[in-house]
Specification:
The chain folds into 2 domains: 200 residues, NAD(P)-binding Rossmann-like Domain (Rossmann fold, 3-Layer(aba) Sandwich), CATH 3.40.50.720; 176 residues, N-(1-d-carboxylethyl)-l-norvaline Dehydrogenase, domain 2 (Orthogonal Bundle), CATH 1.10.1040. It is built from 17 helices and 12 strands. The chain is an alpha/beta fold and 382 residues long. The strands form 3 sheets. A 6-stranded parallel sheet has the order 5-2-1-6-7-8, with helices on both faces. The longest helix is centred in the middle third of the chain and has 26 residues.
């Protein structure tokens, strides 16, 4: 079996790429970073530091790489059995044209062997969104063929992979936490799903997508925004601050109540899941920067993302949401000279005021009671 993975950054190498290589799959990374590409092709592998209570360094072997902007990508897509991505939500549409060209070539070659595509992104149904972009770039005849022979499989992914330490001499070295979760929608495969250790199949993906989004992502970003306001540099520093910890736990409990009401999760099991995630935030071996976690606040305050979507769930089910309100207010205070979205957010607030800026970003009604609650919390933090 052969796989092509778009994205040879830390998440690509440390999470999905590692699982594929460990499964004995012939793996080719696609990226645009020449230093990473050259090192992968020269060495054929790289070290992964897995850190936690029982830390280890594991070697990934038997991999190669190709420039994702080169013509070489098209014949690769035409021949592989699996295509995965870890490029980030903003980059996903940019690779659609290359994927479309490869699928057209695959059809022209007469290949009828199934190809399954899995976008492993921190977003809801990222593969379905990639499919929309790919289909727009295909002819009508190619679209019909793709519907028969190519599976676009949505997934939920969860593993904390921080940036490499400043001064790290090895461009391929990557550090990951022990915990990892990759859940895929088994109903979307064309042909039998591949057998990959660490990839879990489900026929109810949205329950797990929302569990991760409402718990890990919600708690993570609230710790980042409150941590930034309090002057903390890392998620660990933030979650060890008792005041921040209390708000994070409250928000995760509130979003968890939505999950329990909507998907029927077991109360005790979900409580254990929340405690596990807070323990992950405390991992002393992970230097997880609050600015990295908090970046792109406009996306994170959008209607379907990790702050507003669980808040809307509390409104739907008539549940408390004080912790979520505090987290959203903190997000509105987020500032970073390195983040264009943070600058755009502050400009929008300065121009329109907090109430109307939040309404525009979140899709909530400007005169709603919950917007008033957030603005009150926002003003109290000023």
């Amino acid at each position: 079996m052969k796989a092509l993975h778009f994205g040879a950054g830390n998440i690509g190498r440390g999470f999905i790429g590692k699982l594929l290589a460990d499964a004995g799959i012939e793996l080719v990374f696609a990226d645009v970073n020449p230093a990473i590409l050259d090192a992968l092709n020269a060495r054929g592998g790289y070290p992964v530091s897995v850190v936690g209570e029982q830390s280890s360094v594991e070697q990934v072997r038997g991999v190669s790489a190709v420039n994702s902007s080169s013509e070489a990508i098209v014949p690769l897509i035409a021949e592989v059995d699996l295509l995965t991505t870890a490029v980030g939500p903003q980059i996903l549409p940019r690779i659609a044209a290359s994927v479309a060209h490869g699928l057209s070539q695959r059809r022209a070659n007469g290949t009828v062997r199934p190809l399954n595509i899995i976008a492993c992104e921190n977003m809801v149904r990222g593969t379905s969104q990639l499919k929309d972009h790919v289909m727009q770039a295909l002819s009508a005849a190619d679209r019909d063929w793709v519907e028969q022979h190519v599976g676009f499989v949505d997934s939920a992914v969860d593993r904390i992979v921080p940036p490499s330490a400043v001064g790290e001499p090895d461009p391929l070295a990557v550090t990951v936490e022990t915990f990892s979760e990759w859940i895929v929608d088994q109903t979307q495969f064309v042909g039998p799903p591949p057998q990959i250790a660490g990839m879990e199949l489900t026929d109810n993906l949205m329950a797990f997508v929302e569990r991760k989004l409402f718990t890990l992502n919600t708690g993570h970003v609230i710790a980042a925004y409150l941590g930034k306001l309090a002057g903390h540099a890392t998620i660990r520093e933030a979650i060890l601050d008792p005041a921040i910890r209390a708000v994070v736990r409250s928000a995760m409990t509130e979003s968890g109540d939505v999950l329990i009401a909507r998907h029927g999760f077991d109360v005790e099991q979900h409580g254990s899941y929340i405690r596990k995630i807070i323990t992950r935030f405390e991992n002393p071996y992970l230097q997880d920067d609050v600015e990295r976690v908090g970046r792109q606040p406009l996306r994170k305050l959008s209607p379907e993302d990790r702050l507003i979507k669980p808040l809307r769930g509390t409104l739907e089910f008539g549940l408390p949401h004080a912790g979520l309100v505090q987290g959203i207010a903190a997000a509105m205070h987020y500032r970073s000279d390195a983040d264009p979205q943070a600058q755009e957010l502050q400009a929008l607030i300065a121009r329109q005021g907090a109430r109307h800026a939040l309404a525009q970003i979140s899709g909530l009604a400007p005169e709603s009671e919950v917007i008033a609650e957030v603005v009150q919390a926002y003003n109290a933090m000023s």
